Amino acid sequence: MKTEFGLLILRIVVGITFLIHGLDKFNGGIEGTVGMFDDMGLPAILAYIVTFAEVIGGLALILGLLTRTVSIVFAIIMIGAIYQVKLPAGFLGGYELDLVLLACSIMLALSSSRLLALGQILPAGLRKL
Prior knowledge:
It holds the Pfam family DoxX. The protein is mostly helical. The chain is 75% helix and 0% strand. The protein is built from six helices and no strands. Helix 1 crosses helix 5, helix 2 (31-39) packs across helix 3 and helix 3 (44-63) crosses helix 4.
C-alpha cells in the first residue's frame, strides 16, 4: 500500500507538472513555441504535438488514465528535450528537471499507478495501456 500511495503522489505531481508546462506553451499564443521549435530546426507540427501531449497527457495522469502509455510519451518528449535543447547548458540550469521528469516517467511506465485511478474502471484490455 505504501508503494501505491507513493506512485499516486508521483503520478499526480508529474501530471500537474506536464499540464502546467503544456498550458504555458499557449501563454501569449502557441506561435512562440512554434518559433522556438523552428529555430531548433524541428518541424512546426512537433510543437503542436508536444504541447497537446503535455496538456492532455498531464490531465490523463492526474486522473489515472492510460498512465503507462502517457508516461512512455512523456519519456520520449524528455529525451528529445534533453538532447535537442538542454544538454549544451549542462546539468545545473540545464537538463536536471528534464532528467528527473524522464526518470519519473520511466518509473510510472514500468509500474503504473492504480490507486484512485479512473483507468481501473476501463475494460481489462485497456487497463494495461
